[in-house]
Amino acid sequence: MAKKKESTSLIEALSEFKELKNIDKNTMIQVLEDSFRNVLSKMFGSDDTFSVIINLEKKGDFEIWRTRRVVADEEVTDTVRQVALSEAQSIDPDVALGEDFVDAVDFSAFGRRAVINLRQALASKILELQKDNFYHNFIGRVGELVSAEVYQVWKREALLIDDEGNEMLMPKSEQIPGDFFRKGETIRAVIARVENENSNPKVILSRVSPEFLKRLLELNVPEIADGLITIRAAARVPGERAKIAVESYDDRIDPVGACVGVNGSRIRSIVRELKGENIDVTTYTTNTLLFIQRALSPAKAVAITLDEETKQAEVYMRPDQVPLAIGKNAANLKLASLLTGYRIEVFRDGDAEEDIYLDEFDDEIEGWIITQLKDRGYTTAKSILRTSREELLRVTDLEEDTLDNVLAVLEAEFADEEEEDEEGYENTPAESAEDNQ
């Protein structure tokens, strides 16, 4: 009886364990049944004649029943599937030859070794089930913002534990430069990925992922959480600088202003969380030329040429704008490339000093035309003149006559300058004389 109580208490303990680890009742019953069958199969060579009944509703009771065919005593050849008539009648006097005999099996009678084997089988299956549940629970949470307590910090990674006791890892490569964690400290991070090498799942957290920046913005900007503003792209150089592109579905909402907040109140808390990382917020647009122009801010481009197939962009700028476009440690250029998805190359425009911004033609070209051209990335006269007439007609909504008038005004401006240069050259005989010499 002591052994039976021991095995019964084992089931009761596992019933409590089920509640702690969020294993549902039906799954737990199946695990227990499989574990018993595993032990029975090892003991008898087969478990197909056994029936295991588990009841977790009350005390976690279990029953094992065995079904065998009754044969004459001298005809028993398979003790697993056959039972001698004399043995069967000692339990049930009414049983006859050829009938199925069902009797209860006292598992504790198999000895201590059987109970130990059962414990080991259960422990193995429970562990396997826990790992499987853990993996499938977190694989669907990739990209989610979590808060966890620092449990241990090593040289190459930190171990964190969430409110439910789940262990998570944050490698050094996923930490912001300047991050310094103390044991017991609660930090925020995003679930970057879930690894499952050799059926050993690991949750990897990150504070350098662009997704971390997105989740922080959702937390601090109600319009994003409500779906009024969408984050279309984000790029980071962790701890240094970041760029995000946002779009509003309500014309009454300024997406950039909403993200920054009054006097920078909303963005300031995010900057502190990111260890002083500067965040540039720009308005997203489907116009690639304009989007690249905005992504390179604060630098201003003179002209941009695109190769849609290779996703490359050549940007021409005034010499004084090139350092702004590249930025410290090339961070601005790198972020602009990541944000737009184009490989951006910046060139100094030799003619840029002689170029003219479109705004200076407001006395000859109507304002709405200038605005439309600027919205499509054409900010200077030469950026338009470098583009074919067919391309300009394709990317703008301008009528042919309107575009031809604009081109005529711009061409006339530079034609006048060339004439002045030629006249000035003809009126400098000293220079001509020097050339002849």
Mean pLDDT: 83
Distance between the termini: 124 Å
**What share of residues are in beta strands?**
15-25%
Total number of β-strand segments? Answer: 15
Which percent range fits the helix content? 40-55%
Keywords: Cytoplasm, RNA-binding, Transcription, Transcription antitermination, Transcription regulation, Transcription termination
Main location: cytoplasm
Protein name: Transcription termination/antitermination protein NusA
Subcellular location: Cytoplasm
Overall description:
There is one protein chain. With 437 residues, the protein is of the alpha+beta class. 41% of the residues lie in helices and 24% in strands. The protein has a 5-stranded antiparallel beta sheet with strand order 7-6-5-8-9. Strands 1, 2, 3 and 4 form a 4-stranded mixed beta sheet that branches. β1 and β2 (61-71) form a beta hairpin. α2 (25-44) runs antiparallel to α4 (112-139), α5 (210-220) packs antiparallel against α8 (265-273) and α9 (288-295) runs antiparallel to α11. The termini are far apart.
